[in-house]
Amino acid sequence: MKHAPSVIFAGVFSLAITIFILLYVGIQPAVIIGGSAIIAFFVWLSTTYHRPVSPGKIVPMYLLALTGQIIHTGEEYIADFPGHLSGLFHLHNFDRNTFALAVLIFAVAVWVLTAYGLLKRSALANYFLWFFLIGPGIVNGIAHIAFPVIMRQLYFPGLVTVIIPTILSIVIIRKILARA
Question: What's this model's pTM, rounded to 2 decimal places?
Answer without folding.
Answer: 0.95
